[in-house]
Queue: 2 jobs
Job 1
Amino acid sequence: MSQEPWVCVVAPTSILMVEIERPEDAFDGDDSRAEIHVHRGGQGLWVATMAHSLGARVTVCGPFGGETGTILRQISSTAGLEISAIEYAEGSAALVHDRRSGERQEVARMPAGPLRRHETDQLFGAALVTGMDADVCVLTGAQPPEVLAPDFFGRLAHDLLVGETILVADLSGEAALRVAEVGPAVLKMAHDEVIEAGLADDDSVSSLRAAAAQLVEGGVGTMVISRADQPTLVVRPNGAWLVRTPPLSSVDHRGAGDSMTAGIAVGIGRGEPVLDAVRLGAAAGTLNITRRGLGTGSREEIERFTTQVTIEELDS
């Protein structure tokens, strides 16, 4: 593996995010001025952005349609991401938020629509070929889930593994279960997603560990379960660990889990041991909450911050 791996990110849903902010020098009651920021968003693009920040070559495979899709492709390419775009009749999703009050208020939302048969086939082909060529392929979910059937993720994961692709999946619901059946190198889920999928009874470490162990026995190489502000749980065939990070102040928690996924994928792509890759991911995710730019960060700062991440092995 090269020190700067090639990461393919399968991104079924990308979101154009427009955020209205209050200028730093505005005084109380002054609503006559505003700063308007345009960002690329959605799980796949947040993973891709952080992976690029960590030095990886990144190709995003996903549907981009309409005016919003055109803008997303442009700002993603300008930021250094390679885009393998599938034409999308429905148009890419968009969100408008007003944060001038200090709280995020949703002004307007345009959700993504389901992919049609031809679009689904195009996405499958692009993701399969690019994923096989890349050092690591990351599968991210659709939002809402109706954009793609769960079977899409299971079939794609199966075929990527036939090509001996290193597969990292960050999924929930039925899509996660379908991919787990074919045994990705890493499957990451949030603790509430594990419970909602019926794999664990509660959010205790023992219950989540038992659920993760069952999936590992079924073929998943490593299960990573994020637990909000609690230590992340990692389960492998040879043991289980808790990954702890300092409790930093949060500006925006969104994108933290996706930044973690990106760090894991980049670390594995560099040829690092899995726990070292998880350490990199934990550092990326933790520092991301201190920033307003989701999925962004400094490679040097993130790699230095890994020294603040502790990994504790659990008793068998």
Note: The longest strand covers residues 57-64.
Job 2
Amino acid sequence: MTRFNQDIFLAAGLRTPFGRGGGALVGYDGISLSVPVVRAMAEQLTTQRPDLVLWGTVIPNLGWSNIAREIWLDAKLDPTVPSFSAVLACATSITAAFAAAGMIGGDTDVVLVGGVETMSRPSIGLTAAASDRLRALFAKDPAEALKALSSLSPVDFTLPAKGWANRITGRTMGDHMEETAQEWGITREAQDAWAYESHRRAVAGWERGFFDDLVIKLPELARDANPRADTSLAKLATLPPAFDKTSGRGSLTAGNSSPITDGAAGVWVLSAQGRTRLPDGIPTARLVDYELAAVDFSDGLLMATPFAIPRLLDRNGLGFEDIDLWEIHEAFAAQLLANVAALERPGWIAERVGISRDFGHFPWERVNPNGGSVAIGHPFGATGARDLSQTVKELAAMPKGSRAIVSVCADGGEGAVALLESLG
């Protein structure tokens, strides 16, 4: 089963090293951090010209609207390439890849897809009330309006709602995830154990060179700054709750949650003809199918992917153990554990998703072999492209016909899941 009328391929793209919030990459904005990635990927093409560019970011910036076009023009590449932007919270660049796949055909064979977030530098805007007040003053008396700027108070300013908190609830994803962790019985010990494994695997991946051809070096940073070789279960156990600090039941900490991160990442979406425009040796896999899901917040702000995964597998006649590789985004260790707990709970898929068949045993040993977002970092707009490229490289080393699931949850009760297949 596939949504496409022709074979669609993903080829591993490039990304920046992911930097710690307030760290080495703090001097970049979303455009300047993306330009080196886009240039490096364009240089891989025989023509240095894709047919289309899709790029996304999540935290708004008043300095631009179509960041994809701004990046492409600042990269000083062929200005006749159409470029537009996409956004779906943490699933922004994986959803952009799905959109690109649907646009393959005719003269469109190669689409450069990606995303970026500079979480160290969110734009601070004015509230609607403060903006209205100043706008009226500028129209009436510009000099008086300039004086009024100095009298603005903290209540007149706002961080972007989609940067840190859900607009409807006014609460962060961490706040919501604390409730989900308690609902699903996800213990602090289990979260710390998964976080430790994420760091251990990411560090091991760097040490054996897995990331070397996926990450371009920047003058300020040559490799991911977040994976910690010196972490341990004992150290993780000492960290205080980061969100629920007062009830005595808080279990999400800075150590078992994805960190504030700056980074940009890309991935290629290609037709069969488009593959000939990339050099041999770039890992490539077939995009077989995908699924988007959305749930009511009562199901959990980050719990849409357990609804999407069974639908995707059922449509393709697959069970859990038919999937050889699982790349599940780790916004929080608790989120990954709760997502899989739902899939494993007897009767949950039949009752909540409406599919009454046995998907079998879930193969935990096949999840995130080179670490996930808790260790690598989570620049919102870049995570989907990072996940896809990492999966494609992992899958390309497996026998022909091996399958992978890439799963990315997103703020707003949404999620995106892809099914990929190895070309051998």
Note: The chain has a mean pLDDT of 95.
